[in-house]
Specification:
With 236 residues, the chain is α+β, with helices and mostly antiparallel strands. Helices cover 19% and strands 28% of the residues. It has helices spanning 140-146, 165-168, 171-174, 195-224; strands at residues 10-23, 34-42, 52-58, 67-70, 75-81, 86-93, 102-107, 125-136. A four-stranded antiparallel beta sheet has the order 5-2-1-8, with no helix packed on it. The protein has a four-stranded antiparallel beta sheet with strand order 4-3-6-7, with no helix packed on it. The chain starts with 9 loop residues before the first strand and ends in a 12-residue tail after the last helix.
Length: 236
């Protein structure tokens, strides 16, 4: 079916994917020391079923049925094991969203990097990655379905674009606040992601890069026997 597209419009979906692992304590064995969950969720824990049709998790070959397919939200699975490995996550979208799949990769961590701290059955090891899926030139059907959905960032349409009346009249009914899953049993451990936090991280990284550049320039000046010239990082 050829879907009509909205040109020069972008829809973005903030997602978080990761793992959370609990040590089993006295119940731990050599082959089952941790219980862990791998998942894909909305950035503030919304239901992503409005966009994602199914998720496929590729586990280590040592697991029974290592390729696990999750057909409905929440897009997650839980297992028990003892080793760390890379999990491949493939996201498949609804027909009016996108025909191509999105492949993600996440390394399962069972042990904290803080070696001085003892393992705890109450405090899990959690590793998450924030990302945004961008859908350029979305279909009219997709736009109408998600216009007010809490998991999706939808821009206002340019004044030159009008949705067909058959879609516009149903937007309010289709897009009430659906998909809120903040009562997820693991939500107390999830990280909070925001644009402000990301900007602070980028600023800190930029300062580190600038300091490294200054250090390298000093080393090159000494090696070349040239006088050290003052250098200021570019602003902006």
């Amino acid at each position: 079916i050829l879907l009509k597209r909205l040109k020069d419009v972008e829809i973005s979906v903030p997602i978080v994917y990761g793992t959370i692992a609990f040590w089993l304590g006295r119940k731990a064995t050599e082959t089952q020391s941790h219980k862990w969950t791998v998942y894909v969720r909305g950035a503030t824990n919304e239901d992503l079923g409005v966009v994602i049709k199914r998720a496929v998790f590729q586990l280590h070959p040592s697991f029974n049925n290592p390729v696990r397919v999750v057909e409905s939200p929440p897009f997650e699975l839980s297992e028990c094991g003892w080793g760390e490995f890379e999990i491949a996550i493939s996201l498949f979208f609804h027909n009016d969203v996108c025909e191509k799949q999105l492949d993600l990769y996440h390394h399962l961590k069972l042990y904290s990097e803080d070696e001085s701290g003892a393992q705890s059955t109450k405090k899990p090891v959690i590793v998450e990655t924030y990302n945004e899926i961008v859908f350029p030139d979305p279909s009219e059907d997709f736009y109408a379905r998600v216009q007010k959905h809490p998991a999706v960032i939808v821009p206002r349409l340019p004044v030159t674009i009008n949705l067909p009346s058959v879609l516009a009249t149903n937007i309010e009914d289709l897009n009430e606040k659906k998909g809120d899953t903040k009562d997820h049993p693991l939500s107390q451990w999830f990280n909070n992601f925001s644009e402000a936090d990301e900007l602070l991280k980028l600023a800190a990284a930029r300062q580190q890069v600038q300091a490294h550049i200054i250090k390298l320039r000093r080393q090159l000046s000494i090696i070349d026997g040239l006088p050290l010239q003052s250098w200021k990082p570019a602003s902006g």
